[in-house]
Structure formats: structure tokens, C-alpha cells
């Protein structure tokens, strides 16, 4: 049995902070079993009398479990997070129109909708009044605190992880993150039973996580190059993530990281990599919901034969 962190008064927090003491210290290569509340700290499915976890405090962001210190992790190194398994809980909720935003007004989504889901892990489905969808569970938040002191919001994604909301980060993926602080101080949360690219309402099927087995390792770089933004090797292929104040900026960052990957994988110069990317790489909107826009560039597995 791997070391296990349950969401309780010892492990729960709603922010990133480099001075938050670790609740577990592990050697590189250790698999840690996490469990997590749903992102809103709810103690049960949507319905009358539903209450939040008693650990919830005003101003908290996502309910995170951690942090975990990885021995020997240093700023400038890369944290490799191998996602062995993600098992959602038995219920979830999707929200739409709950915030008055220009996006919702433009689309005519001005009446709040709250959609409860029943999750059947054995069948691999989630069912609501809207129908039945296939499960594709992943953790929306996997990340570390910034180097700057103080509490930092869990809402925006960061170059060192956090609320990435990338639907490709399913079991079988390895997420690579630049390490910003000594020991990494890694935390997780925001279980998603299923989500489309973009997370257009601002939420997925938000659910608790019964079990997420993650192997945490440390390496000096990725494919012989320094890492400056999240990158992942997923069942779908290599993914390079970009973040920005608008989609143009996010797309440019994602593409730049993908050109670095293509250079490392295939020995290409920048211009040759750009030509190849135009043929085989897909740019996808990761999410538009969390103050910072996200785009990921996907190089499908076996897209290039050499």
C-alpha cells in the first residue's frame, strides 16, 4: 500500500503557499495515493441540506490535498508526475450560468443551471437528466506554490502547474512541471469525471476523487532541454501547454514549447519544426474559465514516422 493522504484537517488547504509545511515527505520515485474533495469542498451530492466540509474557510479556492515534499527537488529541476490511476467518487455536479460574465451574456446563458450526476465507476459512465456520458477522469489541479511568499489563488493555472484543467491528463500520462520551490511541495485536487476541451461553462463534472495514485520523480530537464511550461506525455501523444492573457498569447506559448519538443524528439531546427507542426500538431483550447487562458498543442502518438 503506498503512503496515503486523505482530505482531512491535516491535509486540506485552499491556496498555494511555499510556507505551508508538508504533510508527507517522500523520496523521488515514490507513488503516493491521494484522495480529494470536489473542487467546491462539498461533503455530498447536490441536494437540500448539502454542506461544505468543516475545513472550508471563506476565501478558499479549490479543495487541495497535500502538500507533499519530494526530497532533493530544487528550483529549476523538473517534477515528473506519473498518473497511475484516477478513480472518481459516486457523484458529481456541473454548473452553468452561475456567474454573470460577458461570455454568458453573449451566449444567452443567463439562468443558472445546476446538473447533478450519478457516477458508475464500474460501468465507466456518468448519468444526469441531460443523458449518459463516458467517464474520462483526471485531476484538474496538480501543482506547486510560486516562489513568491504568501497565499496564492488556486483559480488561475501557473507555469509550474495548478489549475491546468487539461483533459488529456488521464491515467497513463506523465506530467512534467518546472519546480519553483525547494522540495516541490506538490498538491492536488479538483476531480473531473469528464470534461470537454475548453471547459466552457467554467466547470466539468466536478467530483470527489476516491483514489489518485501518482508517482513523483525529479529530473534535471526534459529531453535534454530546460522546461519553462507544463508538458505531458499522454496516451493521446505529447502535449505542450501554453498560458496567457488571451488565446493568441496562450497559443503562441504552447506552440513554442511544442517546437522545442519537436526539436528534441526529431533533431529539427526551429523552422523545420514549425513546418512539421503545421502538418501534424493540433492546437486545442484547454480552458477559458480561470482568469488565465490555456491552449495545448498535441502531437498525436505515431504522427511522425522516421
TrEMBL record:
Pfam families found in the cross-reference section: FmdA_AmdA
What Gene Ontology molecular function terms does this protein carry?
Answer: hydrolase activity, acting on carbon-nitrogen (but not peptide) bonds, in linear amides
**Span list, region Disordered:** 44-70
Give the matching PANTHER family. FORMAMIDASE C869.04-RELATED (PTHR31891)
Any idea what this protein is called? Acetamidase/formamidase
